[in-house]
């Protein structure tokens, strides 16, 4: 039996301690060990980006990361974005703007978009295309994906602005 290593990591805000082989890839830990199958595998050449997750807030292709490299770290997968009842603005954007067809690339695109909008809340169309270039989509032609991310950016900026406007109004009354 091959050697295993115990590692502890936080996935979508929840702590996990698991035993893995040293060669286990993060994507296999997520899908096979933890049954978190929202993260997809679309290639064996590290090119498609369907496996994209956030590692400490930065988008990584989880098929290029060893599980042991995530020891002690924070991982966010598409399961951690929102819920059916309370979609994340990025998920809402894909719904509103028809940003998917078969949906195979969609988890990876959404996680890349999450990283992009966290670092650049007002991206231009070119910046969106650049930010998502690590994830390939065979169906959509990307146009509606760009619209979905623009929609999400607008929604997220409004959510940030709303408390600020309320605080200003409150201050003005004082
Ligand atoms: S599965 Fe294709 S880049 Fe990871
Ligand atoms: S929606 Fe089918 S691969 Fe992107």
Q: Order of SSEs, N→C?
A: EEHEEEHHHH
Number of helices in the DSSP assignment: 5
- Radius of gyration from CA coordinates: 18 Å
Low-pLDDT ranges: none
Instruction: Tell me which CATH architecture of the largest domain applies here.
Output: Orthogonal Bundle
- Spatial shape: globular
Q: Using DSSP, what is the number of strands?
A: 5
Cα distance spanning the termini:
70 Å
Query: What are the bound molecules?
Result: FE2/S2 (inorganic) cluster
Mean pLDDT: 95
CATH topology of the largest domain: DNA polymerase, domain 1
- The SS-based structural class is alpha+beta
Tally of distinct domains = 2
**Could you state the CATH homologous superfamily of the largest domain?**
[2Fe-2S]-binding domain
Instruction: Output the strand order for the largest sheet.
Output: 2-1-5-3-4
* CATH class designation of the largest domain: Mainly Alpha
Question: The biggest beta sheet, please?
Answer: 5 strands, mixed
GO molecular function, one term: 2 iron, 2 sulfur cluster binding
Keywords: 2Fe-2S, Iron, Iron-sulfur, Metal-binding, Oxidoreductase
Pfam family, one: Fer2
Pathway: Alkaloid degradation; nicotine degradation
């Amino acid at each position: 039996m091959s050697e295993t290593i115990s590692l502890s990591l936080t996935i979508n805000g929840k702590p996990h301690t698991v035993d893995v082989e040293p060669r286990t890839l993060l994507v296999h830990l997520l899908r096979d060990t933890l049954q978190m199958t929202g993260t997809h595998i679309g290639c064996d050449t590290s090119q498609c980006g369907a496996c994209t997750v956030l590692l400490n807030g930065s988008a990584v292709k989880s098929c290029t990361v060893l599980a042991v490299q995530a020891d002690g770290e924070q991982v966010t997968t598409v399961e951690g974005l929102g819920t059916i009842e309370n979609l994340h603005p990025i998920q809402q954007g894909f719904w509103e703007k028809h940003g998917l067809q078969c949906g195979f690339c969609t988890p990876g695109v959404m996680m890349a978009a999450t990283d992009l909008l966290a670092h650049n809340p007002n991206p231009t169309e070119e910046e969106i295309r650049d930010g998502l270039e690590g994830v390939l989509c065979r169906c959509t032609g990307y146009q509606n994906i760009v619209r979905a991310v623009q929609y999400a950016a607008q929604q997220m900026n409004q959510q940030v602005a709303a408390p600020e406007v309320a605080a200003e109004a409150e201050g003005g009354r004082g």
